[in-house]
Amino acid sequence: MDPEAFLDVANQVIKLKMFPFFDIAHSLLAALAVREDLGANAQAFSRKHPLACWLSTMLVIFAGGMVANGLLGEPILAPLKNTGQLLVGTAVWYVVFYTPFDIGYKVAKFLPVKIVASAMKEIYRAKKVYDGVGHAAKLYPNAWIIMIIIGTLKGNGAGFTKLIERLIRGAWTPTAMEFMQPSFYTKASLLASIIFVLDKKTDWISAPHALVYFGIVIFLVYFKLSSILLGIHDPFLPLENLCCAIFFGGIWDSLAKILGRGQAKDGDSKDVKKNN
Amino acid sequence: MDPEAFLDVANQVIKLKMFPFFDIAHSLLAALAVREDLGANAQAFSRKHPLACWLSTMLVIFAGGMVANGLLGEPILAPLKNTGQLLVGTAVWYVVFYTPFDIGYKVAKFLPVKIVASAMKEIYRAKKVYDGVGHAAKLYPNAWIIMIIIGTLKGNGAGFTKLIERLIRGAWTPTAMEFMQPSFYTKASLLASIIFVLDKKTDWISAPHALVYFGIVIFLVYFKLSSILLGIHDPFLPLENLCCAIFFGGIWDSLAKILGRGQAKDGDSKDVKKNN
Amino acid sequence: MDPEAFLDVANQVIKLKMFPFFDIAHSLLAALAVREDLGANAQAFSRKHPLACWLSTMLVIFAGGMVANGLLGEPILAPLKNTGQLLVGTAVWYVVFYTPFDIGYKVAKFLPVKIVASAMKEIYRAKKVYDGVGHAAKLYPNAWIIMIIIGTLKGNGAGFTKLIERLIRGAWTPTAMEFMQPSFYTKASLLASIIFVLDKKTDWISAPHALVYFGIVIFLVYFKLSSILLGIHDPFLPLENLCCAIFFGGIWDSLAKILGRGQAKDGDSKDVKKNN
């Protein structure tokens, strides 16, 4: 492909308007996620508790903005002032849960629809991560960690509000904490945030800005599609295992075991327990 | 009644000073609610954990303002800067929990006292909803949903902080979520918020402003008293059932059942479960 | 000791630079607390969930600032902008959890190291309480209760975030609420806050400002060391029991029992239960 043309495409992607089509795709997947999280119970629940159902769907849709605002001391409700997004979200929620004969849900679950919506959502995710990093950089120009946290939260906010979202529906699952088993989306948003921060704050990345952005979009869409179509769920896993082995004790633990200190260590931890 | 005189009364109600008598009534009902929520355990708990007892009572008293501030990016602790209210609340808490021979509690439970306090609290509630809507309207002049949310939260804040309030006392009841089974107060505050927003932002309500306010006060007091005296707990219920039947799937579900698709639907939801 | 020299020492203590040595001590004790809270599970957990482990350690380290900011409407993430503290905290966390053969942990647990770190942490605590009270006083010059709350939270923030910290690690212990059984650190921070507020806002304390500060430092360090070395855990207990007996019903309850009303009271609380 001609590099010039490629850069042109990249420049177009960076300027894509999100409203309303990307918002529809995002809301659609959010409503589907809520419905599938409810499991076999979804039909009955949506009839009995429409308010809780609507609120938890809105929370999933606006999670990133709300959590980021909450952590940056800005109004948590501010994302709701975008009336257009709110109406789109409400309409999509209604279609997924309440259309006659469940037509809306069945259409949304139809594979081609899901693929298109997922691809659009990943493009939206890249934009959100990018905006999040930019916003945090304006507030704290030297605090890389805050930029990375906000970028990650904007990219996969719903992962971090899952506990609250379920709590709104009266379910409490404290072990389903995102930090314990970060999903692929969290890891990808984290990686994208780090790349955006490096691109913004250092000279290490020499590629034009639009290309970096486009590269992340392609990366996100590619892995999302391979997750749906090929069932590859976490391409980061090998890298992580390597990292854990080197930095987080894997090698040393093995060495300690080989040297016959494995038993001693078990003893140690028992001591700790007694001291408590 | 003479319309002129009626409007005069309405104008007086809108200018009523809340401090200190209405604050006393509000605090009294809050402390009673905490005490009754503790159940048979209340005496022992208040002796063993005065700090947790005081904190959870304060949370109930200031719930509306704190939650609304938290969601609007304002200081959560700000309501506490009102020293007068804080002292009144603390005094009432002390009287309800610690007076010799439990005199304070018995007086507070005495029906006429409870009726007067409840009526005063409803007048206070109307004012809080009104102030909440006005405050949100100043911040987000076009975001109706934010005005309605803040009005509702100010009107029945304690309902939404019940989980945190119990958590302070070491109890965790995730299924007691207000959104799942909104109480009459939440629904009434919601309705009042919507009416105030319509009155403020549209020309649909032609009645003078003071009359609208007075009407809501009467509505709230009337249903509170009929709830205490006659045991009518939720006049919204018939309306809700109608609404659910029309908009949230009731009719379509019945139709689907009649057409013999009820079984198919059950099958569907089982599939969803398997996919998870 | 010469009063002049004493005042000199006090003036030096008040100007002590905290970074980096006091931050190292504070982070070390925070990481140890996380590790001991994990119990026998710590080794395995830190290998499997490094992210959750790091996040919960950071939460413990920055708890005071984050909670205080959250309650004052300031950015919760702001404490993280202090890159130096963040790096120190991360390095200490790494040393405590991942050094080969667990050397870091063993050194940190070594009694003399722990004593020095604890003493330094108490000096740091005094400074945090002082800064917290000063910060709140700037925002709300007349709201004593807010100054006291913020001072206490800054002094023992980790106590109040314990629930969230454990939640990050996928554990939920709602009964471990700090308000139910305030630890010695909470009570000492509360007392220190009250003294600082009195010193700042009234003329009741005639001692020079530096001396008050130094007195609180000595008080905190002294009781910390006696807690480690002598096993005295809560010098406030006798005072509290006295206070409860006088103000929170102890005497009246005994009197009521003597007058044979104890049974009647039990009956009362059963009635309450029925009414619920």
TrEMBL record, chains A, B, C:
One of its GO terms (molecular function) is identical protein binding. Belongs to the TMEM38 family. Keywords: Ion channel, Ion transport, Membrane, Potassium, Potassium channel, Potassium transport, Transmembrane, Transmembrane helix, Transport. Coiled coil: none annotated. This is Trimeric intracellular cation channel type B-B. It comes from the Eukaryota. It is found in: Endomembrane system. The keyword Transport applies. The chain crosses the membrane at residues 51-72, 84-101, 210-230. It comes from Drosophila rhopaloa (Fruit fly). The lineage of its organism: Eukaryota, Metazoa, Ecdysozoa, Arthropoda, Hexapoda. GO terms for cellular component: endomembrane system; membrane. InterPro entries: TRIC_channel. It is a multi-pass membrane protein. The keyword Membrane applies.
